[in-house]
Design a protein that fits this description.
13 helices; 14 strands; globular
């Protein structure tokens, strides 16, 4: 059966040992064997090499000839234009347009992707001034981490918000996880990370935290907090992480005092400091994660998708906090997949594509169309 699909997968191979492309072939074969009438591919090419993509596209065309209906979900404009007979564009969970693929070009797709109701004032009006760049706090040169980060170079300055935008597989999160010691770059020829001009290589987060780097994760439920601990203890653990000599003693009184101060500062809404974080709303959980990093008094703060799964009221408060930190002279990085958020917060905008920064804009010259073109071109 695999041979009938022109697949070179060995039937007796263990699936866990196969590469991404061959795993996909097994999934497709299973669907076809069960006479699937509709197959939905969700970002199927994100982890494929160019050669594997060509093989995959040939297989999709073969499935179409067999009478199978294909739904192909992708951020990759070229792939959509190449493969699709009809294209549908969704934005913010709503249908925008459906038309024959022949009636689309890149410009029309981008316009439909970024257009939005201008009455939405949540993200404010277009910036007319930007903060001047202060000291160069972070320099990344030719950073590599196969397969996600490829010769990436960028700079981050004190007193500014540096926005980082990119689509799936752009390597944004991985780049800054390497900076914060959460992930490791390639050991040989992995590039350089310089903090205030001095080379650093953090293999774990602890030394990065002590050096003044805070990474606020995009996945708060998995990486952001201890869900069965209280709000105050979670925040206090952030402070313990920066104390010298592996200080593990936790004072209940001190935890309550430190946590209480930050609960007030960030307006965390809860019936008490001892409430478990898992019992809070998404917006308040996010504030706890932010407080756990800010209690360390970092100089470089990396926000990864800071308002994902957060209510409108908390979005406004988090944005005000980000602006306040930059006004205080901190170097702030905001990684976001939501263009209006990037446009509203950033002084500089870095556009990442396929593992590296490919374009930089001042917030005064940037438009959503320019940014999206750079992200997909």
């Amino acid at each position: 059966f695999l041979q009938s699909l022109n697949s070179d997968v060995t039937p007796t191979a263990t699936v866990g040992l196969l590469g991404a492309a061959k795993k996909q072939m097994v999934e497709i074969a299973r669907a076809v064997l069960h006479n699937a009438k509709v197959i939905i591919f969700d970002e199927p090419t994100a982890s494929l090499t160019p050669e594997e993509k060509k093989y995959f596209f040939d297989l999709v065309r073969d499935l179409k000839r067999r009478g199978v209906s294909i739904v192909f979900i992708s951020h990759a404009l070229e792939e959509a234009l190449l493969l699709a007979d009809r294209i549908t564009i969704l934005r913010d969970g709503k249908h925008v347009i459906t038309d024959d693929a022949g009636n689309f070009d890149r410009a029309r797709i981008v316009q439909a992707m970024v257009g939005r109701d201008l009455s939405n004032t949540l993200y404010g009006s277009r910036k007319t001034t930007i903060r001047p760049a202060g000291e160069r706090v972070l320099t990344v040169q030719n950073l590599k981490m196969a397969p996600m980060v490829k010769n990436n170079s960028l700079s981050v300055f004190a007193g500014q918000v540096t926005g980082v935008f990119g689509l799936v597989g752009a390597g944004r999160t991985e780049t800054f996880k390497i900076v914060a010691g959460v992930m490791k770059r390639d050991f040989f020829h992995g590039g350089e990370v310089l903090l205030r001009g001095k080379p650093v290589r953090y293999r774990v987060p602890a030394p990065a935290i002590k050096a003044g780097i805070a990474y606020i994760t995009e996945d708060r439920k998995v990486e952001g907090f201890f869900e069965t601990m209280s709000i105050a203890r979670n925040i206090y653990l952030g402070l313990v992480a920066k104390l010298p000599g592996g200080h593990f003693f936790m004072s209940k009184r001190e935890a309550s005092a430190v946590g209480g101060d930050w609960i007030k500062t960030l307006n965390v809404r809860a019936i008490g400091n001892d409430v478990k974080v898992v019992e809070l709303s998404g917006g308040n959980q996010q504030k706890v994660v932010i407080a756990k990093s800010l209690v360390q008094d970092p100089d470089l703060i990396i926000f990864d998708e800071p308002t994902r799964g957060v209510d409108v009221g908390a979005i406004v408060e988090i944005h005000e906090l980000i602006n306040r930190l930059a006004d205080e002279g901190k170097a702030v990085v905001v990684i976001s997949s939501y263009l209006p958020e990037i446009m509203a917060l950033s002084d500089r905008i870095l556009v990442s594509r396929q593992g590296k920064v490919v374009e930089e804009f001042s917030a005064l010259e940037a438009t959503e169309e320019k940014i999206m073109y750079a992200a997909v071109h």
